[in-house]
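Continuing the series of single-chain predictions for the mutant panel. This is the parent chain; the variants come on the following pages.
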Amino acid sequence: MTPQASTPAYRRLSVTERRRQLLEAALSLFAHRAPEEVSLDDVAEAAGVSRPLVYRYFPGGKQQLYEAALGSAAEELRQCFDEPRQGELVPRLTRALDRYLAFVDEHDAGFSALLQGGSVVETSRTTAIVDGVRRAAAEHILGHLGVTDPGPRLRMTVRMWITAVEAASLIWLDEDKQPPTVELRDWLVEQFVALLSVTAVRDPQTAALVAGLSADG
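Parent structure:
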């Protein structure tokens, strides 16, 4: 008799593993469709589970699932700027932006709905999650600059640049991902250095930073 192929044994996932599976399925859907266009049935189908199982882990329904997925994506974005603070600033920013733009590229058209709001499921909590990413990015950048007590002009300059990075990423998606990622990345880094140079004219703290960057260069 020809031996029959054995059926793989079903493996019960732990609570942590199942939650991660559902969040990954939700993120995959939210990455390419607006949150209001994604149903719990869609998430269940993508994860290969039943709708009641999704509710078991997220009893608050789609809103809770969306906020959890948003938090997961936000943590990934926070880590984009978590670069070892060694070596010159420009290469560090370049590596951080490589990771950031890779995230934008992977999530494609859903980046706006996922991280920029404009959704019917947007709440004060989702807004706070997104703003937390911006604040964390600003803290990382200030850390890369070696500044522990930034003045208002320097702090504003850093947050303006982060806003510009977000806006450029959205426009880049609208423009069919042109210019090429490497060119966009280099352009954004150059913009940051230019912003610092402009602020340095009015702010001694930033002027000292720019002088240090020139010395490193």
